[in-house]
Amino acid sequence: MTVSSSENQPKPTVRVTEYVYDTKPKYSNAVVLVHGDHQTGDVWVRKADNTPGWVTRFCDAGFRTFVIDLLYHIPDNPQQPPGREYYGIATNKMSKNTLQTYMTAPRSKSHKVFWPSMGSHCMWPGTGKAGDPIFERVFASMVPEYLDPQERQFNGQVTLAGILRTLEHPAILVGHGSGATISWLAADLVPHRVAGIIAIEPTGPPFTDGWVNDGEKRIYAPTFPDPLSLPLPSIRPYGLSEIPMGFVPPPLPPRDTNQLIQDSAHVGAAGTKGFQPIPFVPSIDPATKAPCYLQDELNGPVRTLPNLQNIPQCVVTGGSSFHSQFDYATVAFLRQAGVPVSHLKLIEDFGLYGNGHLLMLEDNSTEIADRLINWAIQNICNPNTNPQSPDLAPPATMTPQRGRTTQALSADSCCSTWSTIQRQELCAIRPSKFGKSSFNAR
């Protein structure tokens, strides 16, 4: 289904902003920063305390840097999908309680969520609680989600792929949360336009949720629930995503659309095995020896992702984030699919402590950005044509507006290389009814 608008409404747009602090960038590979759910491109422009953010560091290091505001995520131009009730999802904005519980003040004892490292979270500026000026500014910058995950992923994939096609050289994608998922999806579509991927705490884990309930608390730990016990047993049925990717051999097709819809709506007897386009089983991650769900190697071929196999990439995890309890499972899934990926843990690999899920907004985010820039230069940028890792200067005091060029693109222009038929085929297999949306920590 093509995203469109009525004649009386402006077409939905995507905003792309380029930042250049050096008229002659040092590297041919541009950096494209992709935000996640409930966010806008502002998360890359300024930190929580309103000082210059990651875009400044990447520009100072010599990269052309692009910031994207995805479809329906432009803060000063709020648009709603026409007839959004068709999508089966209510307008969903993250609550203040959810934001402070999971991301800005997890050390608080006033909530019913737990993971082992939450008490060490200390890098959020201010109290991290409602009423604090920094918290209120960050909360005010967040936007609702109007579409279900399948629609958001599809729109993000074709949008980002369309933008990448316009760049002169392959780009480095830096995605946060669902923005990392979109980065993988776009790279799967146009691998020749992607030089590398830095996935900041990507949506996960594969096939299931990252938490279980013990009756009183929602607990994040390396003990994941049986997917068949979940209200939506088809969560991330393609491992990284809710929509198909270029697996070889291809994923199993559903018998018909109703099979996938019924599975997603959990119609049928409890415990009935739902449709699995990629059969998976309880497994042990070879690297961490921790439990996870991986492809079933005994009863079928392991499906690989050949379009991602030649792209240098890493997954980045904060030590005090709930993602510290399951990002390893995403890494294990990628490696099983033949994708060489590094897992960069801020504590173990860089000695950076106290970071939560919104690590690019926290007090030590400049140090994190610098470590990732050096990783990108050493592992992604062409050493034959690009200079060695520069000595990064102290954080810039200039405003991140200098050298900014903004362009608003229609959703149709980003997707122009995709036929209406292809879009209809892809969207036809997504569930069309999910009911009222609730936050699922990504």
From TrEMBL:
<dbReference type="GO" id="GO:0016787">
    <property type="term" value="F:hydrolase activity"/>
</dbReference>
<dbReference type="InterPro" id="IPR029058">
    <property type="entry name" value="AB_hydrolase_fold"/>
</dbReference>
<keyword id="KW-0378">Hydrolase</keyword>
<feature type="region of interest" description="Disordered">
    <location>
        <begin position="386"/>
        <end position="405"/>
    </location>
</feature>
<protein>
    <submittedName>
        <fullName>Alpha/beta hydrolase family-domain-containing protein</fullName>
    </submittedName>
</protein>
<dbReference type="InterPro" id="IPR050228">
    <property type="entry name" value="Carboxylesterase_BioH"/>
</dbReference>
